[in-house]
């Protein structure tokens, strides 16, 4: 199937099934970039509220750059993968220093936290640049339709799919009608349509093959390879870690510190935490709040025990701890696991 045939089949499907998302009604690269960062590893239903919250509080990239990192992390709280928030804030400063939002694929790629996929998405959506935003949806759709069994997590696989995607987007029209009103670039429509097609039609499990517009051309459908494609060579090893948190109560105050670099939740705040070490012999009444609390991250599983220490004397802690009034905790960004600890307190 040639590139134009592929494009026209896809565009006709998109005209009927496009998802109406707020960042698709703008060419403002700031709002588009913000949506792409928020939606990395986040469902649209969850990310929508965060996107609206950010554009309301920081309507321009300059206002976001002027915010403190703590403010940005607090606004991000609950989304997870907090490096995205730190990168977002850093990139806002990069853009402000540049004096304008970068408008070439190479310049967009230089922004902190922006990889090849995100750069191509922003470039095509905001500036109409013919760059294929190759993500999991692309891999799945192209592997099935063209019958490609090269593993997607190998160098050869990435090159193969990138080359095919680039060949498909290269000849799309400059401007096309948008099903959401007005016109849009053909490159923008192509990438948006591929995202929606993979997310709602050619889904990972139980794809809707019977009413798929590519059914006649799809190798996987014709040869009963739907569940076999795409191929992934390796599996990520998942490690388990055991943590013990101790929330300290001392005359209405508690102790927290900011997590450092080199581990999960960099920049977030937490009470004393212990891993693979004995608990200190602090004075006071130690109460178990919950045990074996499970929290799943991408490459690790955390099992946590929550304790509360009621004491009349502040235990000796390292200098990086802050003693704050318990009522002030709501102003500090914490991980979802620490949030669950706080919910167990009476």
Question: What would you note in describing this structure?
Answer:
By secondary structure, the chain is of the alpha+beta class. It is built from 13 helices and nine strands. The protein has helices at residues 3-17, 29-38, 44-57, 61-66, 69-76, 83-98, 105-109, 116-127, 136-146, 155-169, 186-200, 219-222, 336-343; strands at 175-177, 183-185, 239-249, 253-258, 269-270, 273-274, 285-296, 300-310, 321-325. The strands form three sheets. The protein has a four-stranded mixed sheet, with helices on one face. The chain has a three-stranded antiparallel sheet with strand order 5-4-9, with no helix packed on it. The protein has a two-stranded antiparallel ribbon with strand order 1-2. Strand 7 (285-296) and strand 8 (300-310) form a beta hairpin. The chain is elongated, with a radius of gyration of 24 Å. The model has no long low-confidence stretch (mean pLDDT 92).
């Amino acid at each position: 199937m040639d590139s134009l045939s592929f494009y026209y089949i896809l565009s006709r499907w998109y005209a009927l099934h496009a998802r109406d998302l707020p960042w698709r009604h703008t060419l403002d690269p700031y709002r588009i970039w913000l949506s792409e960062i928020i939606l990395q590893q986040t469902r649209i239903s969850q990310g929508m509220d965060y996107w609206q919250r950010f554009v309301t509080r920081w309507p321009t990239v300059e206002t976001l750059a002027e915010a403190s990192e703590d403010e940005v992390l607090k606004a991000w709280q609950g989304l997870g993968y907090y490096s995205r928030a730190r990168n977002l804030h850093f990139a806002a400063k990069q853009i402000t220093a540049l004096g304008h939002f970068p408008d070439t694929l190479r310049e967009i790629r230089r922004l902190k936290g922006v990889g090849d996929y995100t750069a191509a998405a922003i470039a095509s959506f905001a500036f109409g640049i013919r760059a294929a935003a190759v993500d999991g949806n692309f891999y799945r759709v192209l592997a099935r339709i063209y019958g490609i069994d090269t593993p997607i997590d190998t160098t050869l696989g990435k090159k193969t799919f990138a080359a095919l995607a680039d060949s498909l987007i290269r000849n799309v029209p400059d401007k096309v009608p948008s099903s959401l009103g007005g016109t849009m670039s053909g490159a923008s429509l192509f990438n948006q349509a591929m995202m929606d097609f993979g997310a709602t039609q050619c889904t990972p499990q139980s794809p809707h093959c019977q009413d798929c517009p590519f059914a006649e051309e799809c190798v996987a459908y014709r040869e009963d390879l739907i569940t076999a494609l795409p191929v992934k060579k390796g599996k990520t090893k998942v490690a388990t870690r055991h943590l013990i948190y101790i929330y300290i109560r001392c005359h209405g105050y508690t102790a927290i510190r900011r997590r450092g670099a080199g581990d999960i939740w960099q920049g977030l705040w937490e009470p004393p935490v212990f891993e693979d070490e004995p608990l200190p012999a602090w004075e006071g009444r130690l109460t178990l709040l919950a045990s074996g609390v499970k929290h799943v991250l991408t490459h690790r599983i955390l099992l946590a025990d929550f304790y509360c220490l009621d004491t009349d004397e502040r235990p000796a802690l390292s200098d990086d701890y802050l003693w704050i009034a318990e009522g002030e905790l709501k102003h500090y960004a914490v991980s979802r696991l620490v949030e669950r600890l706080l919910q167990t307190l009476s």
